[in-house]
């Protein structure tokens, strides 16, 4: 005679009378397609009774990691990769000494106004 526990032989413990339909596996769903900038498609499923405004317009595409939208003709744009800049390119972008002095004077004026108030 077996002792301990109340499970019937051949059943899973805690399974109970619920089937898959009770767990929501067969609930009514709608499929929504999303496309990224490379033309990759992914399909997400949402509950059929979900309001349209709760379905997201964009998601992150799981394979490419890019943003994906619901409009196939106009997917979100690809991120622009900035070209590598050399040190000389950054030096050319620096401000002139006159602009630097003007910026410093503006910052000091704003600071003095704040402290005076």
UniProtKB/TrEMBL annotation:
Residues 1-23, 57-80 are annotated as: Disordered. Signal peptide: none annotated. Keywords: Transcription, Transcription regulation. InterPro entries: RbpA_sf, RNApol-bd_RbpA. Forms a complex with the RNAP catalytic core and with free principal sigma factors. Belongs to the RNA polymerase-binding protein RbpA family. Binds to RNA polymerase (RNAP), stimulating transcription from principal, but not alternative sigma factor promoters. This is RNA polymerase-binding protein RbpA.
């Amino acid at each position: 005679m077996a002792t301990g526990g109340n499970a019937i032989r051949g059943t899973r413990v805690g399974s109970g009378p619920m089937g898959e339909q009770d767990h929501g596996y067969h609930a009514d769903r709608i499929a929504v397609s999303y496309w990224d900038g490379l033309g990759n498609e992914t399909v997400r499923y949402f509950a059929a009774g979900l309001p349209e405004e709760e379905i997201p317009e964009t998601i992150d595409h799981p394979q490419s990691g890019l943003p994906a939208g619901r409009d196939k003709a106009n997917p979100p744009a690809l991120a622009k990769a900035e070209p590598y800049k050399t040190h000389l390119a950054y030096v050319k972008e620096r401000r002139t000494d006159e602009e630097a002095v003007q910026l410093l004077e503006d910052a000091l004026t704003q600071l003095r106004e704040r402290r005076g108030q």
